[in-house]
Write a structure and sequence with these properties.
20 helices, single chain, 413 residues, mainly alpha
Length: 413
């Protein structure tokens, strides 16, 4: 597996374009596909322009995810904890597995879940969470994928002469100085005083307390705005002095350049695929869904819809956003084929996440923080993909047989 990872990595370093070019090429491919199904070029261009700004709120949220995470990480208390964790592994493979374990564990409570929840909430009145993400089948599949991910990370980690250090990749590991001196003039006193931090922290904590006590805490934390607010507040407290918080924020901003320049392109792609129709009123995403559904049966639904969701997820990397658009005909197909609707949601969800392993869209915040390029890591993420994709499709197919079809019951308004 190490040979596969290194081979793909060497290929990607030579042929894999910058993430921005990758996104731009995806726009061209989607436009050509739309035109092939009868969408006029002018309509495709309009869809691209209209959709270009559709992800601006999400773009800001994603930028703040990276920035707030960086602020917390470089704060004195967190920096000490990270250094202690970094000293635990005894070798390169151990370090890879530790990082993978921490990442997988933290992802269970991460902001990304909110993307799926935002879509699921729209149908929560019809299909409860107990029939989707918290079934024993979903939890067992999650456990299997976590174990397999750690196993692949261990086997694919480079050894010997294949190891590339941060210096080899041009990554500067010099710890950012968070030390602060004494104020040199009266106007700087408040910049160095924790008084401002305490006042803002008090207001922020009171708001968070109100949010978590007035609503379901699980749903509250899955809101990206709440997540960012929480981490910005935490970063502010850990930095303690305003000047340290300001400096950390300023150092983090350049890391989100890729997010700001590329996310609008994906917004344009999503609009072209889901909003731009041909003379028959069909969109590209609807045509793809119809094609996959037409060849599906109750036995093959999981595999067929899983492949469809994975393919579409590569071009529209937004679990909640595109689910809202596709849910009607995906669930209609499941209903007609007498497939459990709760599990149909999970089929879509689990398969849709696989392209995230190689789609630069989801790598951008991490790449920005680390100072890496997509081509530097895609060899290893691709290795995860070639193991995960067939395994996920197999598990989805096998678990489908453990569910019984239950007709939908729409609650009365």
């Amino acid at each position: 597996m190490e040979n596969i990872a290194i081979g793909v990595s060497n290929w990607s370093k030579k042929w894999f374009p910058e993430a921005y070019v990758f996104a731009a090429l995806a726009v061209v491919v989607v436009v050509l596909a739309a035109m092939a199904m009868g969408v006029p070029l002018a309509s495709a261009a309009r869809g691209f322009g209209d959709g270009y700004w559709s992800l601006i709120p999400f773009t800001m949220q994603m930028a703040l995810v990276a920035i707030s995470g960086y602020i917390v990480a470089v704060s004195p208390p967190a920096a000490k904890l990270i250094m202690r964790l970094a000293a635990l592994p005894r070798g390169a493979k151990g370090a890879v597995v530790l990082i993978a374990a921490v990442s997988l564990g933290s992802s269970l409570f991460n902001w990304a879940i909110s993307l799926v929840f935002s879509g699921l909430l729209e149908i929560s009145g019809v299909i409860p969470f107990t029939d989707t993400i918290v079934t024993w089948q979903s939890l067992l599949m999650m456990l299997i994928l976590i174990i397999i991910s750690l196993w692949v990370a261990y086997l694919s980690a480079p050894t010997g002469a294949r190891i590339r250090t941060a210096a080899d990749l041009g990554v500067d590991l010099t710890e950012p100085s968070m030390a602060v001196n004494k104020p040199q003039r009266p106007g700087e006193w408040l910049e160095y005083s924790p008084l401002v931090t305490l006042l803002l922290a008090l207001l922020s904590v009171l708001w968070l307390y109100t949010e978590f006590t007035s609503s379901n805490p699980i749903l509250v934390i899955f809101n990206l705005n709440t997540y960012n607010f929480l981490f910005l507040t935490l970063g502010m407290i850990l930095c303690w002095r305003p000047i340290r918080f300001i400096r950390a924020f300023s150092k983090a901003v350049p890391s989100v350049a890729g997010v700001l320049i590329q996310f609008p392109l994906y917004g344009g792609i999503a609009f072209i695929m889901t909003k731009t129709a041909n003379a028959d009123g069909e969109t590209l995403s609807h045509l793809l869904a119809s094609g996959f559904v037409s060849v599906a049966s109750s036995e093959s639904y999981a595999a067929v819809m899983g492949i469809y969701s994975a393919v579409l997820g590569f071009f529209i990397p937004s679990g909640g956003g595109k689910w809202l658009i596709e849910a009607p005909y995906v669930l209609q197909a499941a209903n007609e084929l007498r497939v459990n609707l709760g599990w149909a949601v999970q089929v879509y969800n689990a398969a849709e996440a696989r392209p995230n392993l190689i789609n630069p869209f989801w790598m951008l915040p991490l790449l920005g923080v680390l100072g890496l390029r997509a081509r530097d890591i895609v060899g290893f993420t691709f290795t995860q993909l070639i193991v995960h994709l067939p395994l996920v499709l197999l598990l989805l197919w096998l678990f489908t047989a453990t569910f019984h079809y239950v007709p939908p019951m729409v609650p009365a308004k």
